[in-house]
Amino acid sequence: MTKLVENKKILESYIPIADMIVATFGSKCEVVIHNLENIHSSLIYIKGKVTGRELGAPTTEVILKELRRYGNKVKDIHGQTSQTRDGRFLKTSTSFIRNQDGEVIGLIGINFDVTSFSMVNQIIQEFTVTNDLEQIEGPMSESYATNIEEVFENIVEATLSEVSVPLEQMTRNEKIFVIRKLDEKGAFLIQGSVDRIATILGVTKQTIYNYLEIIRND
């Protein structure tokens, strides 16, 4: 049995768990299984309808960043609050799936829409002068994109917004800063990203590689 077949069987073994979780927690809950051997179209199973994604959707910006930073040593993410582009709050947990060699091959993720709970909590806060109730503050932004193009554009847009300088006026150091941030966020794990980022910054492909070498040597 090839490693690809073995990995597929491991990932498929999580399907009954996904079904059980959604059956227990209802329509506000969604469980996804991603095959990270293909980050561009990693979603292989979804139960529930919270993020609006379909099979074949890519992995998210948050997962790309974690994979770029930690590789096979990446740790599970439990109880993180995120906010969708349409303003809903989600409570999310992600558990990375490994094969017998300890390689990360996929993940199972739970997305629970807690928007209505947060609204009720806000009302309670307004009628009480206490701070002992948990509030949802500063949630991470996650797009739950339907294709890898959207993921790439979101990463680039968020990164450029961190530099308050127009592209045509950016200095070399500012461009290196942009490349550093894009690298940290896993942008270069996306196929074809070097060419596209070079075009956006108005530099050559080789310049991007030179900047990456400077950054990674640091």
CATH homologous superfamily of the largest domain - what is it?
PAS domain
The structural class is alpha+beta
With strands numbered from the N-terminus, the spatial order across the biggest sheet is: 2-1-5-4-3-6
Average per-residue pLDDT, rounded, comes to: 89
Overall shape: it is globular
List keywords for this structure.
single chain; 218 residues; alpha+beta; Beta-Lactamase; 2 domains; six-stranded mixed β-sheet
What does this structure look like?
- The protein is built from 8 helices and 6 strands; from the N terminus they run ααββαβββαβαααα.
- It is α+β, with helices and mostly antiparallel strands and 218 residues long.
- It has 2 domains: 3-141, 2-Layer Sandwich (Beta-Lactamase); 148-217.
- The termini are far apart.
- It comes from Oceanobacillus piezotolerans.
- Pfam families: HTH_22, PAS_6.
